[in-house]
Amino acid sequence: MTLETELVDDLPPVLAGRVEVQQVLMNLLLNALRALDTVRQRHVRVGTGRDGARALVWVQDSGPGVPQEQLDTVFDSFSTSKADGLGMGLAACRRIIEAHGSRIWAENPEGGGARFSFTLPLDEQRGSGD
Q: In terms of residue numbers, what domain contains 82?
C-alpha cells in the first residue's frame, strides 16, 4: 500500500478545532483504507489546496468508489455500504465541517476510486507561518 501527500506549503492556519479536524481526517483515512480491501492496486492520497478564502483538504483512494446512487446520501446518518458499518462516521464528519460554515462532499474521480473533500475557513489575519 502506498500513501502519498500533496500538501500546499503556504496555507494560513484554518479557523477550526484541531481535534474535530483530526476526527474528520481519521474517519476519511480509515474509510479509504477499508475501501482498499478489495483491490490489488492500493493507493491513498491526501492533499491540501486553496479554494478562495478556504482551505481544501481531500482524501482519495484507489478502491471501487462510491456507488453512484449513494453519492448524494453517503453523509446521511445510518447510510452505509459496509456490512458491519453503522453509517455514523461520515454523518459526524458532515456535522463537524458544516458547524465550521464549510462543506464536505464525495465524488468518484476519473480513473477510479473515491475522493472525499472538505473545506475550512482560513485565518487570513494570522497568515502562513505565524
A: 2-121
Cα-based distances in Å from 108 to 72, 97, 113, 122: 12, 20, 6, 26
Give 10's contacts (C-beta < 8 A, 6+ positions apart): 128, 129
CATH number at residue 75: 3.30.565.10
On whether residue 14 sits in a domain, the answer given is yes
77 occurs within a structural domain: yes
* Nearest alpha-carbon partner for 24 in 53, 2, 57: 57
82-121 pLDDT, tens digit each = 555 545 689 999 999 999 999 999 999 999 999 999 999 9
Q: Is residue 102 part of a domain?
A: yes
What are the strands of the beta sheet with 43-51, ordered from one edge?
A: 2-6, 43-51, 54-61, 114-121, 104-107
- On whether residue 129 sits in a domain, the answer given is no
Q: In 3D, which of 122, 101, 113, 121 has the Cα closest to residue 59?
A: 113
- Kindly report the pTM of this predicted structure: 0.89
